[in-house]
Amino acid sequence: MTTDLSRGDIDAFADDPDGPVALHLRQPLLPVEGSGSVVFPPTYADIGYNIDELSDGTKLATIDSVGSQANRMETVFMAAGPGLPENPRSHLVPQIEIAYGNEKTVSILEAGHRLGDALIRSTGLKQMARDAFRAFLDRDDVAPLAKLAPTSLVFGVWDSRDTQAKLPRIVQSTIRAEDVDVLTRSAQYEPPVDYAELDVFSESDKEKQQGDAKSPLAKRGFVHVPAVKTHGGVIARGPIRRDIVVNLVALRRLNGENGQALRRYILALALVAATAPLDGFLRAGCLLTSDPENPGMWQVVGRNGKRGSVGLDEKAAFDYARSAADAFGVGSGHRVAFEKDLAKADTKAKTKEQ
After folding, report:
1. What is the pLDDT of residues 47-85, one digit of tens each?
2. Rounded distance, CA 354 to CA 347, Å?
3. Roughly how many angstroms between the first and final C-alpha of the chain, as a whole number?
């Protein structure tokens, strides 16, 4: 049985200290080619695919990590670019843009470390960000963070290069594939013409360097190069699942001026991010969709572990967020310039750990 959530129910998630510990969605996903098709996980330095083997021999592959999912979800709050339809979610958070180079800009919503990113410390927002982190460390007050960069509270932030302030994620999402078989693939590049015959280099040079991917001619694409037994993706015999958790315990620990409105505002942003449609194009060879026959259901998890299904969708989350944002007051946006001198000075600064 599914319980429809009223606005009062959602308020209680943020307000009730004895309330449930989390909201959880387990969302089955499918490759666009269908169940059992090849998907390509991310590759990591030194290990390739991140695949864990359980005690029974089952292999689990990471399809998208916690950090990667957070970075993807955070962009749902970005303002649309020129000529594109307006994104109504962008009005829920202050928009911070950093101008750099030849009339280029980057949003803080694209910065991997959010308010703790080196890019912020390289702008006029450096002191404002530091003051916001200090307010949390000195007074347990996250209101300045919520006014300046609220998604740093939603997706977590660690100011590891400066104040050492650290706040956990309210929203956490991962995608894993179960019971996977790892594939390999091989290919060979053949140049369209014989450059040795055209006297670009000698036949001897061609014979010495073709087949060696590290040779100068191979690197420039003048001789044939085999690529053997490279990463070929995985086939999941088990499910591919996305797990989203909204941590209500961490949420209720947020304090600051107008604390009730603040917590409801951060909860609202978390729900908007968690219910936004999945952008399933994770990388080349990995385009996923939800399973229309098994869309998953949000569950509220009590302190005793009991679960109950609740009705929570994109529209309900957005409607709640507009009200919560009005009550708390969305902070002002900023457009600032990247300052090379600040960046240079920061490269020479030492952290407390150092």
Report:
1. 999 999 999 999 999 999 999 999 999 999 999 888 889
2. 13
3. 54
Q: Kindly list the distances between the CA atom of residue 92 and the CA atoms of 156, 259, 269, in Å, as whole numbers in the listed order.
A: 18, 18, 8
Which of 269, 246, 280 has its CA nearest to residue 172? Answer: 246
Encode pLDDT of 249-259 as tens digits. 999 999 999 99
State how far the Cα of 40 lies from the Cα of 62, in Å rounded to an integer: 10
**Cβ of 135: how many Cβ atoms within 10 Å?**
18
DSSP assignments along 10-56, one per residue: HHHHHH-TTS-SEEEEEEEEEETT-TT-EE---EETTTEE-EEE-TT
DSSP state string for 333-350: PEEEE--HHHHHHHHH--
Classify burial at 29, counting beta carbons within 10 Å of its beta carbon; exposed 0-12, middle 13-18, buried 19 or more. buried
CB atoms within 10 A of CB 96: 23
Q: How far apart, in whole angstroms, are the C-alpha atoms of residue 146 and residue 3?
A: 30
User: How large is the angle between the packed helices 259-275 and 7-15, nearest 10 degrees?
Assistant: 120
The owner of tokens 């999402």 is 173
Using DSSP's 3-state secondary structure scheme, residue 99 falls into: strand
Name which of 281, 318, 314, 279 is nearest 298 in CA terms.
Answer: 314
**Backbone phi and psi for residue 268, each to the nearest 5 degrees, phi listed first:** -60, -45
Structure tokens at 5: 């959530």
Q: Residue with structure tokens 């947020």?
A: 254
CA-CA-CA-CA torsion for 341, 343, 345, 350, nearest 10 degrees? 170
pLDDT tens sequence across 154-201: 999 999 999 999 999 999 999 999 999 999 999 999 999 999 999 999
Which amino acid is located at 309 in the chain? Answer: S
Q: Which of 303, 302, 315 is nearest to 271 (CA)?
A: 315
Distance CA 354, CA 313 (A): 46
